[in-house]
Amino acid sequence: MATDRRKFLKQFGTSVLLTSASLTSLAAKEEHEKRILQAEKRVSPNDKIRIATIGMGIMGFNDTHAALTVPGVELVAACDLYKGRLLRAKEVYGSNIFTTDNYHDILNRKDIDAVIVATSDNWHSPISIEAMHKGKAVYSEKPMVHHISEGLNEIKAQQETKAVFQVGSQRVSGIAFKKARELYQAGTIGKINAVEASFSRQSALGAWQYTIPLDASPQTVGWEQYQANSKVKHAYDSNRFFRWRNYREYGTGVAGDLFVHLLSGIHFITGSKGPDKIFSIGGLTYWKDGRNVPDVMSAVISYPESPEHPAFQATLRVNFVSGEGDRASTRIIGSEGVIDMSDGGGFTIHKSKMPVAPGYGGWDSFGTYPEAMQKAIVEEYNKKYSAADQQAPKMDDVVYHEPEGYNDSNEHFANFFDSMRTGKPVVEDAAFGFRAAAPCLACNDSYFENRIIKWDPVGMKLV
User: Fold this and answer.
1) What integer is the mean pLDDT of 333-356?
2) Where would I find the Gfo/Idh/MocA-like oxidoreductase N-terminal domain in this sequence (predicted)?
3) DSSP letter string over 143-203?
4) Degrees (nearest 5) of the Cα angle 203, 204, 209?
5) Among 204, 322, 336, 343, which is least packed by CB within 10 angstroms?
6) What per-residue confidence (pLDDT) applies to 47?
7) What is d(CA 436, CA 143) in angstroms, rounded to the nearest whole number?
8) pLDDT tens digits, one per residue of 139-153
9) Which one of 3.30.360.10, 3.30.70.420, 3.30.70.560, 3.40.109.10 gives the CATH number of domain 175-355+391-406+431-462?
10) Does domain 2-172+417-422 have CATH number 3.40.50.720?
């Protein structure tokens, strides 16, 4: 492990920049040294953090694995409503871990310092709030709330308890996003005016048709507890449990699940507190398997001028039956360049700046004038603008790659546990998490209610 970490750290400081002197090596060296200290720090018994994961589905197992890459972290308990996942947890993490189908058993234990809340979306906020009041640090999967109405109460719980609370949108810890933010703040792309961001998928698994175990039944699944906080109760349905993302009662659809990744990254880079108007459209075009959320959704989101940034608009899209295959893209567009963060692993900044002179000819009315007038215009133009003014500046692209083996989920957990140990602020607190989640949930409201949703990004409330 130490050898792998050292190899990674060496790569970090030397291979991340391919072109551009915009990022000096100094910042990389400082970050490099900081990482060496963190990775090689000897963890004393007093520094050991004992964790439990509530919800051992896809994200539960992945989050637990990422958490355990951090030195001094120990998994002591796991909770899930499907018995098979509790058995699997013991197979993977050892027979000595405590397992239960009742999350209260986890929260009532005094030997657990932090919990990962990786349940279906409808349980994120209730469990997180109770955990904070029980004295636990909380890592909550995104979106941190199932309904907009839950957000301020969760923020209040964190403020009252002073608990360490972090939302699990790992882009906020990603080194590529940090570097993109540095360049954005340095004015590399001029003034922002638009963002285009999307996820495209083309597979059953990508569209959330997850594998269902052969023994799935009311005898192996805690169905009553699962839907205990749902207004409408349904008879047992394996799809609703194992493919919960497809149902509004338990999940938040493509907006809450994937738009929230996009907005988290956008808000992190721009420093934005959020939009003031949201409108979305969509439909169920292909995956007609009983789900009650769209498989294609597009949103137009308006960001007002603020102390953090000029006014801009963002267009978001998720397509679960896209002919371009699996692809993710975020393009932050400014007056002098574009930050293109496509398919992860880094970014490219394409820079383009208009010449001082406006130009003439081409698709222009110039050619419609008499020859004498054209000559006079050219003569006057050349007197007014130098040859340099008439040329667009040549500007090289900036290309940035993450070091080989880098993982932003591991980094996100490292930041979470570092906050627990040092008391420094988390990288994605409740306010940031809610400001990313609420506009996404408003996309759902806009889609189902066919109206523009107005939002107060500072006060974090519907208007």
Assistant:
1) 93
2) 49-168
3) SS-SSGGGHHHHHHHHHHH---EEE--GGGG-HHHHHHHHHHHTTTT-SEEEEEEEEE--S
4) 150
5) 343
6) 85
7) 8
8) 999 999 999 999 999
9) 3.30.360.10
10) yes
